[in-house]
Amino acid sequence: PAAMSQALAxxxxxxxxxxxxxxxxxxLLVTAGVGGTLVxxxxxxxxxxxxxxxxxxxxxxxxxxxxxxNVMKMLENRSGSLVDIGSGDGRIVIAAAKxxxxxxxxxxxxxxxxxxxxxxxxxxxxxxxKFYISDLWKVSxxxxxxVVVFGVPQMMPQLEKxxxxxxxxxxxxxxxxxxxxxxxxxxxxxxxxxxxxxxDLKHSRGCETKSLKITPETES
Length: 220
Known about the structure:
SAM-dependent_MTases_sf; 7 strands; Rossmann fold; membrane; 15% strand; protein-lysine N-methyltransferase activity; single chain; alpha/beta
């Protein structure tokens, strides 16, 4: 009996040790899984959250079907290159490309840019579209004739000044959700959050077309 007791005493700690080891292994696996999930969520969420931490917040809010329709209405009888400032998931750029524009989108969020490129490929307009990962304040828009902006009130005064300095007189700027503070719109359509304002820079800036003076011929 004494020998059996000693044998049991030796076996019990060993079994507990094995059980503790298994529990420890499961704990490490769970910890690793949770940690990996948090890292993945951080990687995905950071590009979305970071803009909100900037001085001027430009969050991603998808354009509604009515907004897209109103923007396209403001682009009727227009041609040339088009840029969407803060292009999000590429809806405006893709819609413009379908109308024949060579359309470009600038977006700070890399995940949205990659998704936009995928959507353009799915829509069959990837050859007419380009998407760039860039800060709008570091880009010159001087070679675009049509500009679409989904902005917020805090950024509109500074952006108005930037566009007025960079764009040619024949440019048209289309603002969605919020108007520019100083310019007077040439056209407005939509209601509420779907309102769209169109500005022809030649009117907002006061550009004048100079006509050539014809000197009458004198008889010799």
